[in-house]
Amino acid sequence: MKVRIKHIGCGMNEPDKQLAKDFIKFLQKHIKLHHNVTINFLGQKQKNMTTGSRTDDSVMNILVKGRMNRDVLRTLAHEWTHEYQRINLGREQGPDIGGKNEDEANAMAGRIMKMFENKPITQSDLKNIKDEQMLYDNLIVQSGLHKLKKIPTNIEQTSEQMKNRLGLITGEIEAGNSNKSLLTELHELLFKMVRVHLISKNAAAAYYKNIKINFILFKM
Q1: I need a surface site. Which of 19, 199, 204, 217 has the fewest CB within 10 A?
Q2: What was the pLDDT predicted at 217?
Q3: Are 213 and 205 in contact (CB under 8 A)?
Q4: CA 17: distance to chain centroid?
Q5: 7: which residues sit within 8 A by CB, 6+ positions away?
Q6: Where in the chain is the domain with CATH 3.40.390?
Q7: Whole-angstrom Cα distance, residue 185 to residue 211?
Q8: How far apart are CA 141 and CA 57, in angstroms?
Q9: DSSP states of 71-116 as a string?
Q10: Three-state DSSP string of 148-217
Q11: Considering Cα of 115, then 118, then 119, then 122, what sign does the dihedral take?
């Protein structure tokens, strides 16, 4: 996985550029993307963006000029999380304001900044989280930070929820439910389970293939 960095009229000095590089390495380590991305640090907004945006060809546009470094990095973490959602998890884009993806990206960006700044993440940071908790726990366990730092997770509860949801989705499909969204959710769920070591990648692929065959047969 490679990250291509461009500075387009953004006015970043060398220390700022180095800080951004360090943060990108942190993101690469803890929120693993498996494909090449481009990050454009911009001096002015592009069409239809506020402070950040991403494209379907994995280009992240981050507004720099007139903003504090911390705000720039937070925006980058936000867009990086969207990249993870769209590519790693295979989700649809969703609305720009509100909605599951946007709420997750906002929450994750805040927590990633705390982790980067070595600030403790407390239980209060985890309040009022639904599906986002699963993403958060996945990332913390995938990165190993639950062992290296005292970062609280609900990973045991999350693991049980994933197993229960897997059973429900499988049951729905085997009962003849031909809703395509079930198959999409199954794929996403299985590979979440891979990332927290509940199942091997090969086992997840085999399980999905078998259920997909049943899904196609039930539709015939």
Answers
A1: 217
A2: 59
A3: no
A4: 24
A5: 17, 41
A6: 3-146
A7: 12
A8: 28
A9: HHHHHHHHHHHHHIIIIIS------SSSSHHHHHHHHHHHHHHHHH
A10: HCCCCCCHHHHHHHHHHHHHHHHHHHHCCCCCHHHHHHHHHHHHHHHHCCCCCHHHHHHHHHHHHHHHHH
A11: positive
Alpha-carbon span 5 to 189, nearest angstrom: 32
Structure tokens at 136: 């958060």
The pLDDT value given to residue 130: 45
Q: Provide the CATH number for the domain formed by 3-146 in this structure.
A: 3.40.390
| Percent over 70 (pLDDT), the chain | 76
Terminal Cα distance for the chain, rounded: 40
CA distance 177 to 81: 31
In angstroms, rounded to a whole number, what is the distance separating the alpha carbons of residues 14 and 163?
Answer: 48
Q: What is the pLDDT of residues 99-135, one digit of tens each?
A: 677 887 887 888 888 888 887 655 555 543 445 555 5
Q: Is a pLDDT exceeding 60 seen at residue 142? A: no
Tokens read off for 14: 């060398």
Predicted confidence (pLDDT) per residue in 45-77, tens digit? 987 788 999 998 999 999 999 999 999 999 999
pTM of the model: 0.63
